[in-house]
Design goal:
This protein has 10 helices and 8 strands. The protein has 320 residues and is α/β, with parallel strands linked by helices. The chain binds uridine-5'-diphosphate and magnesium ion.
């Protein structure tokens, strides 16, 4: 049996409400491409009827469906990596389960790849998310643009296509917390982007709270850049230099104009300054903690995810 030309990877976390609509649109869209394809669902420890629905779908289309059931919730990006290690397509497309990325757009990504690109990212047109999410995304995109070397117009868009060489490179990485589109970008030779449509979530609710969104972006920042740390030490240096200058100024004033010296007007400034410095120190400590935390996660060498079961035909189980 020959390997599929296309693997579609879909992470699923408590998407019982959205899956029926996804199945109904995904398979016809893929059949229409006229390629040998496989769909790899990764259940990321769902506690709703997602697993039952995935089992059903596997029973209906076993020749093109594979399902990896993870034991616990490890997060969208780890779930995608679990699928990357198993998918066999020459090209791999990631997609969300909630139909926010229309599966009909996959052909457009593949067409762009045919032009010689090994990595094609989607850029959501007329994004259908709450205003808060859109403005947060814009700010975080801006921040990433300035702290990493990664050039992406829309980092939050998960409708993306990766060439086999990139997926292989990603599989070589042993990162325990990562951001797949950024990791892929660092291995891409000729990345490109295409506009893709965006729809409102078909059913269910977003799995990202403000806190999880923030965490994800710390992963992105500290996982791909040392700039935050370097910026911090730079600022520390400037502040230290400024305080030395200030000290010299105070001494000069005491020596040459003792009559204007009044402890009162300095105290007020000093309080503010101390507040500022304390804030900086705490922030810096926290920042160092982010990196130390990543190192800690990495050196534990724990398995990144535990697989409960894999649903696939025996013939598909062989490694690529
Ligand atoms: N997801 C996952 N594990 C998680 C959180 C999310 O596998 O811990 C999946 C989710 O089922 C969906 C995709 O990741 O297929 C994107 O999640 P969601 O649509 O909730 O994110 P949003 O569109 O709000 O950014
Ligand atoms: Mg979504």
């Amino acid at each position: 049996m020959s390997a599929p030309q296309l693997s579609v990877v879909i992470p699923v976390y408590n998407e019982g409400a959205a899956l029926p609509a996804l199945f109904a649109r995904l398979y016809p869209a893929l059949d229409a491409l006229g390629l040998r394809y496989e769909v790899l669902f990764v259940d990321d420890g769902s506690r709703d009827r997602s697993v039952a629905l995935l089992r059903e779908q596997f029973a209906q289309r076993p020749e093109v469906t594979r399902v990896v059931l993870l034991r616990s919730n490890v997060g969208q990006h780890m779930a995608i990596l679990a699928a990357f290690e198993r998918c066999r397509g020459d090209r791999v497309v990631t997609l969300d389960a909630d139909l926010q990325n229309p599966p009909e757009e996959i052909g457009r990504l593949l067409a762009k790849m045919d032009e010689g690109h090994d990595y094609v990212g989607g850029v959501r047109q007329a994004r259908q998310d709450p205003l808060f999410r859109r403005s947060a995304s814009r700010a975080l995109n801006w921040l990433r643009e300035r702290t990493t070397r990664i050039k992406m117009t829309d980092q939050g868009c998960m409708l993306r296509a990766y060439d086999r060489t990139i997926v292989d490179a990603i599989n070589e990485c042993r990162e325990v917390s990562t951001f797949v589109p950024a990791l892929a970008y660092s291995f891409a030779r000729a990345p490109a982007e295409v506009q893709v449509a965006h729809e409102v979530r078909s059913a269910g609710t977003s799995k990202y709270s403000l806190y999880r969104l923030l965490r994800l972006n710390f992963d992105l920042m500290t996982g791909f850049s040392l700039v935050p740390l370097q910026l911090f030490s730079l600022t520390g240096m400037l502040v230290a230099a400024a305080s030395v200058l200030l000290y010299l100024l105070v001494i000069a004033r005491r020596l040459f104009a003792p009559e204007t010296y009044d402890i009162g007007d300095l105290v007020w400034d000093r309080d503010l300054l101390e507040f500022f410095l304390l804030g900086m120190v705490l922030f810096g400590l926290g920042l160092v903690g982010e990196y130390v935390g990543r190192i800690y996660l990495q050196v534990r060498h724990r398995p990144r995810y535990v697989i409960d079961a894999v649903l696939e035909r025996a013939a598909d189980a062989e490694p690529r």
